[in-house]
Specification:
Largest sheet: 5 strands, antiparallel
Strand content: 25-35%
Number of strands: 21
Strand order of the largest sheet: 6-7-12-10-11
Shape: globular
CATH class of the largest domain: Alpha Beta
Structural class: alpha+beta
Oligomer: single chain
């Protein structure tokens, strides 16, 4: 176990894996998977490790997906992009803007790779991946068979998709297809974006505003290891939301189309006076309570202990039970994060 995972996870947690292999094409990825499987080892395919917490050493092979390439075709009403799974997400956003293909600007500065974006159905500032995803290209690891899933077949939900369920271990994502409409409409529903004028705003204005908000509120993983938003924003039924709003009328809340209400996890944590609270080497970020950081050589146990405390405090005050957005990895693969911190 001499292969450190520290460079391969943005939390900067120092665990090890039996093997770490960088795959720059499909052949290398399949070969690494087949070798590990032949040895009876578990396999984890990783992008930039920006949404994982390694709980202990990984007893198998970690394959880092670095399949690159961006191809653009055009139709009468949209641009269609075919993007390799290993492309950096933020660089993709910059590429589309530099080439006058707007639509991804609300998702600027989200850490990670393009291939991870459909797994989580990433979202920020009013836009989710499912609104711009056209298809996902996969390969079945055991057979090498190719499969293209349409956006509807991906079963996107809030930070969820088929790739977290039936397709989790059997398939690898090779590329993601995006459809960016030429009839661009700004999405200005969150934060500083609400101050922009929808009549005159440009995609670059939205991009700049999103980058400013993220850089002023969120810690740089190069300085303090973190995995972005640690918890999902909880979704509760209307009755629960009404009862909570009767007690806390200024609580941010976002009614959903299906009648449920999304609450702001960061606000709930902040109301428990937890900004800056630390447990071992892990801490709640001073500016954005939704982010847990590696403040000083935190162990995974420090992060788990901190997450447990945060969840318990919010549950006690609001009867709302937070669930991690970050994926927890045990020695042979993903484990139930809620059970770990409960």
């Amino acid at each position: 176990m001499n292969h450190s995972l520290k460079p391969w996870n943005t939390f900067g947690i120092d665990h090890h894996a039996k093997h770490i292999i960088c795959a720059e094409n499909e052949r290398q990825l399949l070969s690494a998977w087949q070798h590990a499987t032949a040895e009876g080892l578990p396999v984890l395919i990783l992008g930039e490790g920006s949404n994982v917490l390694f709980l202990e050493d990984y007893a198998g092979t970690v394959i880092v997906n670095r399949i690159k390439g961006i191809e653009v075709t055009e139709s009468a009403d949209a641009w269609h992009l075919h993007v390799g799974a290993g492309e950096n997400w933020h660089q993709l956003v910059c590429y589309t803007l530099d080439n006058n293909m707007p639509g991804l600007e609300n998702l600027a500065l989200i850490p990670g790779c393009a291939g991870s974006s459909p797994i989580q159905n990433i979202g920020a500032y009013g836009v989710e991946l499912q609104q711009v995803c056209e298809f996902v290209d996969c390969v079945e690891l055991a057979t090498g068979k190719h499969l293209r899933l349409s956006a509807s077949e991906c079963r996107f939900g809030y930070r969820d998709s088929i790739f977290k369920h039936e397709y989790q271990d059997k398939f690898a994502i090779l590329a993601v297809g995006f459809r960016l409409t030429k009839a661009w409409k700004p999405v200005l529903t969150y934060g500083d974006l609400t101050r922009l004028d929808p009549q005159t705003v440009t995609p670059r204005d939205v991009f700049d505003s999103v980058c400013h908000m993220r850089m002023t509120k969120l810690p740089d993983p190069k300085v303090n290891g973190n995995a972005g938003s640690f918890f999902k924003n909880p979704v509760v039924n209307r009755e629960h939301a009404d009862a909570l709003l009767a007690l806390f009328p200024n609580a941010p809340h976002y009614p959903q189309r299906n009648g449920t209400v999304k609450l702001a996890a960061g606000w709930l944590i902040d109301q428990c006076q937890l900004k800056g609270y630390s447990h071992g080497g892990a801490a709640v970020h001073q500016q954005q309570a939704l982010v847990l950081i590696n403040q000083s050589n935190a162990t995974s146990d420090d992060v788990v202990g901190l997450a447990h405390h945060v969840r318990a405090q919010v549950g006690k005050k609001f009867n709302v039970w937070l669930e991690p957005e970050v994926r927890f990895m045990g020695p042979t693969g993903e484990v139930n994060a809620v059970e770990v911190i409960a």
